Amino acid sequence: MLNAQTTRGPKQRREREKEALRQVILDAARELFVSEGYENVSMRRIADKIEYSPTTIYLYFEDKASLLFAVCEETFAKLAKRMENISRKNEDPVETLKRGCRAYVEFGLKYPNHYRVTFINHPDLHLGRDNYLREGSMGMRCYSHLRANVEECIKQKRFRRGDVEALTQMMWAGGHGVASLLITKPDFPWVNKEKLIDLMIDVLVDGLKA
Amino acid sequence: MLNAQTTRGPKQRREREKEALRQVILDAARELFVSEGYENVSMRRIADKIEYSPTTIYLYFEDKASLLFAVCEETFAKLAKRMENISRKNEDPVETLKRGCRAYVEFGLKYPNHYRVTFINHPDLHLGRDNYLREGSMGMRCYSHLRANVEECIKQKRFRRGDVEALTQMMWAGGHGVASLLITKPDFPWVNKEKLIDLMIDVLVDGLKA
DNA sequence: TAGTATACTTAACGCTGTTAAGTGATAGCA
DNA sequence: TGCTATCACTTAACAGCGTTAAGTATACTA
Global pTM? Predict the structure, then answer.
């Protein structure tokens, strides 16, 4: 029984090739989505880039939104990793929370089109396809991490208020407000971006402190 | 010279009729945009609704985005009025600021599709068509009003910090963060909406207080 | 009353996401 | 080794989109 449950053989080779093409499609889509924005990229353009016919993509992804969803999961995973690194380095929970929020906003500013499609636009939302923050997703992992941060601050009695869930959502909303406005309204006469980010985080934390 | 610079006559009548049709188009567009969202409404659907051919719309508006822009101006005007009413009623500037922010967020939640197109989505943004907050626009009027609110708080030494512009933008970002997340992620397990709104505003103001 | 300007429509262009049907190679079995 | 069925992929098409060029009546002017 040499070939039972092996990773070799023609069947396995084809499976690997399928997986490889899936990744090629995903890479092409990510590159185009990030550089030009979801709405400005057509399935035909992605197909052109990888030198396959447009319909081939549909053999690997249900539709355009699914493609976007897969790309977003990768992005979220990166962000989650980044935030977890910050937690490991720092001891003070309040400082960790601040740095985490900062990392979140700057991540958004660094990859604006990515942030757009992941946190702002949500195409086909109204159709109940809001998978981006479902249980077990990378987005939820980011949220849970932020939540743990906030919880630690409360546990150590650094905050005056105690509703973990509400406080987490408020911190998220504060970061998202700054990030999304800076991204979607680049022509507005903003004060210095870094200053605005710091101000939001500092004021929120100040307002919470015991 | 009875007819010199009069408001009557065939020429004037036609002008009035033109203006009337413009408003009919605008009303139809607003209704569809608000109930179904900008992206899900086609020019042909608007045309059907008013029983004209699609091309007629282009005699009154440059393109779909212009139509949206006109609708947004109306929305902004409503919001501006609402905020100005609050200022007139209240004496305490901090309370006024809080109520103004609250009004802003609740306005967004009441007209989510309107808020989407006005503050979140911005189609054709990347093409430099970000007219929504240009000088003299209704959007800018709202912002200026908020700014005046903040300025009054600072003048009366109710706040610890003094950068009017930065503080205004932070308050806006806080409100926008809550509004946009609640609108774009309705499936997320939010805490009570009212509570989240109040929390954000209270914590921000607390963090600013002298 | 003839001619022109105005208000609107018809038909089309080049896109879009998506799908049904078709093709050609390959793998497994007789 | 030869047949068949499966698999990976493509071609062609559908129904829709925003937008525009060209055409047609109608109403006003001279």
Answer: 0.87
